[in-house]
Amino acid sequence: MANFSKSNAPQFSMDVYQNEYLPEGGREVNAIVTVTSTGGGTIGSAVAAPHLWSAEQGPSAAVALMVDCSGSMDYPPTKMRNARDATAAAIDTLRDGVHFAVIGGTHVAKEVYPGNGRLAVADATTRDQAKQALRKLSAGGGTAIGTWLRLADRLLSSAEVAIRHGILLTDGRNEHESPEDLKASLDACAGRFTCDARGVGTDWEVKEVTGIASALLGTSDIVADPAGLAADFTQMMEAAMGKEVADVALRVWTPVGTTIKFVKQVAPTVEELTGRRTEAGPRAGDYPTGSWGDESRDYHVCVEVPVANIGQEMLAARVSLVVPQPDGSTQNLGAQGLVRAVWTDDMVASTSINPQVAHYTGQAELAQAIQQGLDLRKAGDIDGATAKLGRAVQLANNSGNADTAKLLSKVVDVVDATTGTVRLKAKVEEADEMTLETRSTKTVRVKK
Amino acid sequence: MSQMPQLSACPSCEWPLESGDRFCGACGYDLSAVPARPDDSPTIAMNGAPPGGPWPEVPHPPAEVHLPADLQGTESGEHALPPSGPVVGSPVSPVSGVRFDRSPEPDEYVLQAPDPRVAAGPPTPAEGTKVCVACRAGRVDDDGYCENCGHAQPRERDHMEQEAGPIAAVSDRGLRHHRNEDAFTLGTSVLPDGSPATFAVVCDGVSSATRPDDASLAASRAAADALLAALPQGTHPQQAMHEAIVSASRAVNSLAAEPATAREHQPHQNAPACTIVGSIVTPSLLVVGWVGDSRVYWVPTDRSSPPARLTEDDSWAAQMVAAGLMNEAEAYADERAHAITGWLGADAYELDPHTASFKPDRPGVVVVCTDGLWNYAEAADEMAEAVPADAAARPLHTARVLVGHALDGGGHDNVTVAVVPFPTPPQGAGSA
């Protein structure tokens, strides 16, 4: 296991933003919990500042690279070549001492490097050997992503490491296994390793790729042009190399009589966590957050408390960060945040909405409006799609989410962003629509 | 008047006089009007300082806060003052010739039952096993919340009582606020001539400001420190009170520079602020000082003489009345009535401490309180009704009774009451 007492272990801190004042009879308490980890390595420093990451210093890690080798990867042939180059670039980004493997994925999963159910340990020689092995990759066969993930899990679990991470690239739909099989594989792998997922081209299913990343607490994105793969893979691997603590869970304690309405990550992306609770002792539950490097994420916690009299104060939730240990105990990461409820007859206090809560409520609605709008558009409901995407344009504009606003403007003609008046574009590039859908959950932080 | 009495000090404010002074250099008191002082009947001189009679160090002369007619009794010439209200059967005291504008009543008052929470004794929780007061099932964690039901546990400041020699004070969170933002300090000191001085300072944190509880605590402590330093040095009590308020103001201002605690992410951050009111009792003088809407009431032991309010609120309502724009009933019915126009804090427009000196001619108690009490006993008569007859002898009991009065009335705000007997009873003869 990782030794967290090392000097380069990150320090976690937590800030709670809320309006704790409730009116008489008020029951719903909303809070934004910002979790920040600092003091460890910096994401992206693996290459830029290798001295930070000698083999002895960095946390022990294992990475599995899953590359789609199905027949469609040959159309156009540059796709396979780009995938090969991207994987090579990712391998170059591995720091010395990291365990790794390359998996070629079709309707079955094949070990491309090093083989024999093992992991290689990165150094100059193995990196070279791995890149040699990539040349043998050829396209042919179907797509059964669940088998790739299970092989990756088998390989990653063979090493005693702190961080286990996968990088998955696909270009097509998961046609050669049932959605249930994929779901079962994701359930089996959840919590065992984290995984970033990328779709290359435009023939893949957005919900499959985002579903994989969501289940395995990684990122998802589209790489519409295969030429962009190398840069994306390098960046993904740098992020993976920056991770220092794995399996961090957000532990939420609530008092008797309190119901948790939802817990979601709201920055950097919207990620619903409510249903992923595991009970952790009396009145406490753990919500998985995956592995952490130097980064900051925001969570929206909403709890319903029993009504109390004016002048009463109670603790509605206590949020902390823990790492569950194999022996059943937990390691507490020290940071803690208190979500309070105070009943008051001061209407000014109880009716004001915390700006952070308001902002992220808007961001969550934005993600939902985009997804619903695109679904309605596919289903041919022009009016419904126009309304939803118009609302999305309005929300993106008002909250300063410029990236999402830009993506929206490729799908709709914006007449008036402030009021959300839009017209659906008659012709939309498939890549643009898929980019919007894949990135719909990306949020921005509160304008300062 | 041909015959100038040789006085060593101003009969109004005790300012040291020089021979030949025709007026007090401090308060402008007309010394020619001072008769030989009858031994059995000291005069009552209800007089702040008229404009133009500066204390040497006071930047603003203490405001004149009320007319002599506000407090019925005798003026210094022992002439009865015209009664301000309907006079019903005013007997004349055979001893002093003082006119009492209250009908003779049996010396009985309906007292508020003491708050049972108070009667149960000091609310210090049992040491060791801390069990939640709300659900009685959960242990209390380090943050002061129940591990079972999450309810906040009573804090130290939720209910505070203190007795310091002959004076006492009680402060309570009330029934509608989640924390106590009031604070008080009591003190006793010795004047250079060896006579005792007692004082009480009461502060009310402004809820709409950030960290009002810190503000009131800092202000009351700074004011008390200033008084404890100034009084033994012979500073005139009124001057000492002025300086104490200035010192309290500085203490509150300095809070604005401190970062708020991480827990307190208020939707709006503004400078901590509070009101202040204080009273000093020396053997011959009663000095009050205030900024904001916390008040001092004078309640004579002999209830046949009238009580009085000794302070004038820095509030919207008081200003409207003072400006003649509204009558008192209209002004206090307005929802803006309680908006204060003066406070201690970095965002106060201009610090204008009000001070006044009185020479009560009979024993009584001084009630120093926040609006949490006087909202339920606004008029001086109402306040006197709520004060037990033996208030001077049992100040702590009296403070508890008055807090109970506010809680019975609804306890909509934090309540803080300090009770200071006048004159200070000899040491050892404190409350029973």
TrEMBL record, chain A:
Residues 62-245 form the VWFA domain. InterPro entries: VWA_3_C, VWF_A, vWFA_dom_sf. Gene3D superfamilies: 1.20.120.1690, 2.60.40.3670, von Willebrand factor, type A domain (3.40.50.410). This is VWFA domain-containing protein.
